[in-house]
Amino acid sequence: MIKVISFDMDGTLIDNEFNLYIWYQAVPEIYSRQFNMDFQKAKEYVSDEYDRIGMNALEWYDIKFWFRHFGLEADWKEILQENAHWVSLYPEVKPALAKLSKYYKLIVTSLVSREFLEVEAQVVGNYFQHLFSVTSDFHLVKKTSEVYHSICRLLKITPGEMVHIGDDHMSDFLLPREGGVRSFYLDRQRQTKGRDVVHSLEDLTCKLLGER
What we know:
Elements: E1 4-7, H1 17-34, H2 39-53, H3 63-70, H4 76-82, H5 93-100, E2 105-110, H6 114-124, E3 130-133, H7 134-137, H8 145-155, E4 162-166, H9 169-178, E5 182-186, E6 197-198, H10 201-210
Parallel strand pairs: 1-2, 1-4, 2-3, 4-5, 5-6
Helix pairs in contact: 1-2, 5-10
C-alpha cells in the first residue's frame, strides 16, 4: 500500500528559470557591481568558474561556497528570497498536489541544495512533510538507489510503500526501482510511452487515485 509520494523538484514541479536566473544573472550582476566590471565579462568569469569546479563537486551546488569564492558581500539568503518570483510552477502542479495530499504523505527528493529547495517549496505551497536534498542531506552529487532506501528508513516505511516521480529517466525512474521503490517517469515532451510513463502530474494523479 502506497503511503508516501516523493517528487523531484526542478523539471517536475517547477521549471528551471529560478536556478538559471540566480546563477547566471543575479550572481554575475552582484559581482559586476561590487568589482566595477562589465556585466558580460563578469558573467563569463563566473560561468568559467562554475565549469572549472564542475558538477561532480558538492561545492558546485552550494551558494554559500560561491559567495565566499567570489568574495561577494551581498547576503545570499536575501538574494534567493528577493528573486523567489522566478520560481514558476507547471500549471497542473497545485491541483494535483492538493488532491494527492488528501491520501498520501508528500515529500521532495531533489538534487538541488537545501537553500534553493526551501525557497522553491515555499512558493509551491505547504504540501510537503519533508524536503530531502541529495547534495545537502546525503552529501552526494547524484541520486542513488541507496538514497531512496535511506529516505524510506528515515520515514519508517518500506520501499514498497513509496512512489517517486521525476523527469530524469535514470535518477528518477530506474534507480528507485533498483531498490524496490515504484517510480514514474515524467516526460513533459511526450516523447516516451509506457505503463509507468506520465506526461503531467494530472496523469499521475489519475493513475494513483484510480488504483485506490
